[in-house]
Input
Amino acid sequence: MAIFSADTVKLLEQVNQTYPGTVILRTAGNASGVIRHDQIKTDMLGTRLMIEITDTTAPDFMATDELLHMMLTLHGYPQIFFQLEAPEPELTEQLMVMATYLYQPVMHAIIYREQASHGLLTRDVAEAYVQGVRNTLTSEVAGDKQEAALRLLTLLDAKVFLRNYPDSSAEWEAEFVQEFPEAWQAAGLLVDQLVLDSIKDPASVHRAIVTAFKGFDAQMLMWELPELFNAEFTTVTPVLSERQLRLTVNQVFEVKHADFKNRTTNGDAYIALAKNDGQNSFVITPSQENQANWFKEFYQTPVQDILDAMKLPYTVRD
Output
């Protein structure tokens, strides 16, 4: 079993000071020489959360990735939720996976930066990360868009990783240009829109998530591929000012009937879209009785009262 570094153990202790339970960290399996983000397994055991690193190629890199994700969300950084469903279960699952693939590079803008500052983005880790990309993707063939979305999602995170790698990444970038010219260029354009250095706090993370969603769909349109419509499908924790919390719902959100069903009730769903960026902030199921009056009262209720009454997560902007 791999032994975690003192820095990793210290981070685990910091997470346990905030987490409402106990987080346990362990490793299993052998070292494959490959890093993939599916090499982390989490299980709830009562109030204990077990994080198991299932490949010992880079246990500190993988463990701190997961722990920093937890640390950020415990401190109010936006999360994504899936409260809606498409008509086909397979499509719902695909939309959820792809939205998560877009969310992760935004969080990794902070996480990889922090890992680099602690010396975790070593040459060996970078080699294993790049090998994971090689194992995930096939080389581009002109005109074949079958794996275009997967390539863009995978290479978006690779761009963020290599931007934070402290030494020269020229050899790997040259390889990606050779193997995935169109997708690598598209990933670069999307990363430039995210402005990685500006992603530092909950508000900037929220903006970057929305940018990633919109930028991905714009690229899909350019490639004549289906959009994901994450602005509606995926709920992103709203980051609101004290003033916005005091305003009424109709001043901050536009509520529209969803093209998707409520994932819990399988009934009709309404989405509260933030007026400033059009992103799904929460999903509601109105009363079936006297719905007109219900909506009238809902629209005129202060935002904070609604969020608190419905026990919906939100973050107060500094």
Q: What stands out?
A: DSSP finds 13 helices and eleven strands in the chain. The mean pLDDT is 95. The chain has three domains: 1-59, 60-232, 235-316. The radius of gyration is 21 Å.
